[in-house]
Amino acid sequence: MGNIVDYVRTDFRSFTEHPFTAVDSLVLSELSYIRLPIVVPVFAVARSVDTVPVGALLRAEDFPSMFASDSQQVNSTRLDLLVAVAESPRFRGMRVGEYARRDDAGREQQFAAMTFDLSDCAGIRTSYGPGGLLYVAFRGTDGTLLGWKEDFNMAFRCPVPSQDAAAEYVASVLDRSAGVPGGEAPSLMVGGHSKGGNMAVYAAVRAADRELRRMQRRADESGDTQLPAITATAGSPADGGRGAQAADTYATRIVRVFSHDGPGFPRRLQAAAFDAMASRISKTVPASSVVGMLMDDRLPYQVVEADAVGIMQHLGMSWQVDHGEFVTASGLSATARFVGSTVNAWMLGIEPADRQRVIDQLYTIFSAPGYRSFGELAENWTTAVPGIVAAARQTDRETRRLVAGVLAALPAAAWRNLPQVPQLVIDSLR
Predict the structure, then answer these.
(1) Is residue 338 part of a domain?
(2) pLDDT of 117-129, one tens digit each?
(3) Are 303 and 421 members of one domain?
């Protein structure tokens, strides 16, 4: 038993011997946190999906910019994962490209995506058809205050800019990978960790909605009264990849969607499109999940064992793998159930406008010292506190009451990297 790095280092089976699983999806979702170098083709420049071998990422001179999280341990583990993938007989035929990254403070957007082409990995064409397989990975929150602000915005707004960007990204990849008329286009999987998992679900549902609208137009033109079902026939493992496929289909080519501890949505997505895609969505959460339990999307989920404690189980590198599958836990921990119900009850009990006011003020307060990320705040918290406290005191009385209540309700584990700061802010607000 080990984590996904151990899995990639030791499991040499082809995709025929061991078909693509949620563990493989988490591997690619973790790789999406890497800031890809300029050798990787950028999104939507080429007429087709443009990629380079994954081994092209192994250039030491690029590593300082590629692995730039606030945690050296996380950076080291992700480098280990990349090296293991490039060496692995299971993954070494993989290619990566279509890199997109947008950090826009004006739109409060932190977005990144990339496409992995697994078509030349051993066993993929046998399992998914001659068209091969593409995996679109969306990056989760990167630790910046901007990234967390967009996460919080998801509590009262749908779509946020990154959700729209994710839908546009998947639509573009589907369109540009459709291939020549009469040929077989690749199947598509979509996934991500944390916010990336939420965007994967949103993008897939939007693709299904796009398909339903296209079907409705055709039905209106032909006079049909009933639309055909949207089923994942193209390249589906269920039929050995032999399903017939038209180049203009969209949602039918999406065979799996993966959300790894991704939150839900503040309101139900398009009902018909969500129902059409729901059976293809695989959701995994750790036993101490908090993020994945937010805004319940009524999707079934698998609870995974992790070797971290509390909220730190959110980190995918802590999830346990045995013989190529996640180690299943008996259920959510009591703490996860309590925190999830408490936060969701607060979100349901407060008006969206008040949610937005609290979130906007929290962002203003914690960004006042001028640091880019929570990691920088943690490193400089003694000098950051005066700016945070001053910003907290400048809010109006009602907003101060709301923000103080929210901070007081958050679990102590969430603040382990910012000692004393929340209580100081609460005291200032009161």
Answers:
(1) no
(2) 999 999 999 999 9
(3) no
